[in-house]
Design brief:
802 residues, mainly beta, 1 helix, 5-stranded mixed β-sheet, single chain, 1% helix
Length: 802
């Protein structure tokens, strides 16, 4: 967990991330402990494989030529950027493996990470990252692997470089006494490889002035900033912390720019003009006036500007809560100040004294339902918070360390009575310092929903998550709905759908957290695409819409113990109309229900274009609650149908559900996907239930097995009942039953080789007919049959026979 980072104001030593809190270095030489996820795209429709973008970033206010590499790129038509400020002027070159494009970066483009995708005529690519900075760039020039061969670069430069195995890159700059020298690297953040960079600044004599590794602000990237003690040349060394290298790309910012480690306060209200103090700069703390966005959001990047521009942001919150800032918390609960502002509110503070906690008191009303949330680590603070909420009598109402996969704390409390309450904020390891800023938000619990498309396989964050809908075809996705305080029926809307695409989803009942969304493209839909924002709308017209957002996470790199090393998130779904596919899938709508405890053979058909005979692999998008299915079914090469088997448990939800299958087939060197329609599946109570009493039989003998029937719904004609789950060397002939039958009686025959012992696998299979369609039932599953050894004949009987 992160520790405090040493810093000093105006001193000729580093204000670096050397001492920052950091996880233990991964032992990447042990391949079995390492998972590096740099994705390829066996993805959507016949997706382009977008492997990399070069350069990895550019200067705002300029036009850059991007080289996009991968496979199946010859028909690229569009580049999607998820944020404003980047515009494609032209795609200048297209080939199967390389595309070049001129991209204009606006002068006011947001600094830092930007996500992009490619759209071709046949599919959508996976996500990739591009970084925007304030400085002009140049390329690293080999051979610069020693201090003597250090590459001279001017201050105010971003270097694009590559680290190879056992490689070190050296750069030299000339600086004046008292001048700020700052370096920052974007390496791990590029999301390409398992790269853990370390930076070292040395003077002309080779003395180490600063070293920077991980940092709370930048994660596994580091920065260092110092005041130069004397005129002269200084070197900057870049390497991997364990000298690993596999073409690790990086962007190294070198200049006189400010690089504060923290900002205070950590938030404000929408539209507020905030006097923010940047902390940890070697030239001293400084205050900068910032205007916050007009809309509340999870976090907002603010850029430090004094004698230059920081290459990446510090982070603050933007929320609607009134802020309390001019109160100093106490170190004990007894001395905690009582705030004038009752809940809800936000409090900005600093945990400055080592080993001590911060205590605050506030008033709240009975039955207020409040979320207590610390924002620290996710905003770049080194604080690893522990949050405790205390009642009026000092009793704990809740405590939390880490929450939602990150080391910030959240506690939810229903206020039991009017009165004064206390919150305690501490560091998990008792650390503190002037950079240990935090924001405590106490907010009324509001209904909120997060929408997402689940991963289709472990470590696969892209496949079938962005609908690439072929003309005249369909593409179904599973949408998960994480509900927080909204337990009502809901509907879905999709803003920004490309022309020619429609999205269909049913009413989502209050008890469900997943639903199928079917995207369909008209046969004459124009080939094109866009970024779509799914959202929740109320089921009834007179209800207020709950807060909802869409989230697509990409975990670029994982390390030992399955820990996420680098992650990105985007807030919209890519969708596109693509070229026609040579197949179309349909479910033959079932005319009878799937009954609890029963099974169904669901026919799937495929319509093939002339000359297309590839096998098609089918997967069920979502099974209704209590229903299971085969993991996948293959329509063989040249075949036009297959059977998908469904099974319902005895407790399956009785309801009318919607189902769909998606099929993938080899097309043009990739995998193309299309789905069926939304078909209706009724899950119903069984027409007949049964009970089989415990049965025992001697090996080699016969016995009667009686299944007692309880008929619930009359059925047509006769039905054939079979005993299933019998061991080897045991048989029973099927018997016929009618709607009036009370029992199904079977003659059980065992051979001399029948296995001895107890079996709990016996059941009765009954297939009823309705409207000419079969309705399979499984009655009394798990019934018991015991096969005993033959009893010895009595001695008197044996003598008589002799």
């Amino acid at each position: 967990m992160p520790s405090s980072r040493n810093w000093s104001r105006g001193a000729p030593v580093a204000a670096s991330s050397q001492d920052a809190a950091r996880a233990p270095h991964p032992q990447r030489l042990l391949a079995t402990l390492l998972l590096t996820l740099t994705f390829t795209s066996a993805l959507l429709a016949v997706a382009p494989n977008f492997a990399s973008v070069t350069p990895a970033g550019g200067q705002r206010g300029t036009t850059v030529v991007l080289t996009l590499r991968g496979d199946r790129l010859a028909d690229v038509q569009e580049i999607f950027f998820y944020d404003a400020g980047l515009a494609v002027e032209s795609i200048t070159e297209t080939a199967e493996r390389v595309v070049k494009a001129r991209v204009r970066i606006a002068a006011d483009c947001r600094l830092g990470e930007h996500a992009l995708r490619l759209r071709t005529a046949s599919g959508l690519s996976s996500l990739r990252l591009f970084y925007v900075g304030p400085l002009p760039s140049l390329d690293e020039k080999e051979n610069n692997d020693t201090a003597a061969k250090a590459q001279p670069v001017p201050l105010g430069t971003t270097v694009h470089g590559i680290i190879l195995a056992e490689d070190t890159d050296w750069f030299s700059v000339t600086a004046r006494a008292g001048q700020r020298l700052s370096v920052e690297i974007e390496g791990a953040r590029l999301g390409r490889t398992m790269f853990d960079p370390i930076l070292t600044i040395r003077d002309a004599a080779g003395k180490i002035m600063a070293t920077a590794d991980d940092s709370p602000l930048l994660g596994h990237d580091g920065f260092a900033s110092l005041l130069v003690p004397a005129d002269g040349n200084y070197t900057i060394q870049v390497r991997d912390v364990v000298y690993a290298g596999n073409g690790h790309a990086y962007r190294l910012h070198i200049g006189t720019f400010p690089r504060p480690a923290a900002v205070f306060p950590l938030g404000g209200r929408p539209g507020e003009i905030l006097a923010a103090t940047f902390l940890g700069d070697p030239a001293g703390d400084f205050t900068q006036t910032l205007r916050l966005p007009e809309k509340a959001g999870a976090r907002h990047g603010v850029i430090a500007e004094r004698d230059g521009t920081a290459p990446s942001p510090n982070w603050v919150r933007v929320s609607d809560l009134p802020a309390v800032r001019d109160v100093k918390p106490a170190s004990t609960a007894a001395q905690a100040p009582l705030l004038n502002q009752p809940a809800p509110f936000a409090f900005d503070g600093v945990l400055a004294t080592k080993g001590e906690a911060a205590f605050l008191r506030f008033t709240a009303k009975k039955d207020q339902h409040l979320d207590f949330t610390i924002f620290a680590r996710r905003l770049g603070s080194p604080l690893d918070s522990v949050l405790t909420v205390l009642g009026p009598k000092g009793n704990s109402l809740g405590s939390n360390d880490d929450s939602a996969g990150q080391p910030d704390s959240t506690v939810r409390v229903r206020i039991p009575e009017d009165g004064a309450y206390t919150v305690k904020i501490a560091d998990q390891l008792g650390r503190s310092g002037p950079l240990h800023t935090f924001r405590l938000e106490i907010a009324e619990v509001r209904p909120a929903l997060v929408l997402s498309v689940p991963d289709t396989a472990r470590y696969d964050y892209e496949t079938r998550k962005s609908p690439a809908v072929a003309r005249g075809n369909r593409f179904a996705v599973l949408l998960n709905i994480a509900r927080d305080g909204f337990n009502q029926d809901l509907r879905l809307a999709f803003d920004g759908l490309p022309p020619g695409i429609t999205a269909t989803s049913d009413l989502v009942p209050a008890n469900l957290t997943s639903t199928i969304v079917l995207f369909e493209a008209a046969a004459d839909a124009p080939i094109g695409g866009g970024l779509v924002r799914p959202r929740v709308i109320p089921a009834a017209a007179n209800e207020a819409a709950p807060e909802s957002r869409f989230r697509h996470n990409v975990e670029w790199v994982r390390i030992q113990n399955d820990t996420v090393y680098v992650r990105s998130e985007v807030d919209r779904m890519a969708a596109a109309v693509v070229e026609e596919l040579p197949f179309k899938i349909a479910i033959t709508e079932p005319k009878v229900p799937l009954v609890q405890g029963g099974e169904m053979a669901l026919p799937i058909t495929v319509e093939r274009a002339a000359g297309f005979d590839e096998p098609i692999t089918l997967k069920m998008i979502l099974n209704p609650s209590g229903v299971s299915s085969q993991p996948e079914v293959v329509i063989p090469k040249g075949a036009t149908s297959a059977i998908y088997k469904l099974n319902a448990t005895a407790r399956a939800d009785i309801r009318t559900a919607r189902i769909a299958v998606i099929g993938g087939a080899p097309v043009k060197g990739g995998t193309a996907f299309a789905s069926s329609q939304l078909a209706t599946l009724d899950v119903a109570a069984p027409f007949v239930i049964g009970k089989i009493d415990f049965t025992k039989v001697e090996r080699g003998a016969t016995a009667r097995v009686v299944c007692t029937l309880d008929q619930k719904v009359p059925f047509e004609g006769t039905a054939l009942a079979r005993l299933i789950g019998l061991p080897d060397e045991v048989t029973a002939q099927p018997v016929e039953i009618t709607k009036d039958s009370k029992q199904a009686v079977f003659e059980l025959v065992t051979t001399a080789k029948a296995p001895l012992g107890l079996r709990k696998t016996l059941a009765c299979s009954v297939t009823l007919m309705q409207g000419g369609e079969p309705i399979p039932h499984i009655l009394a599953p798990g019934s018991m049959l015991r096969i005993d050894p033959p009893r010895a004949k009595p001695a008197a009987v044996a003598a008589t026979k002799e």
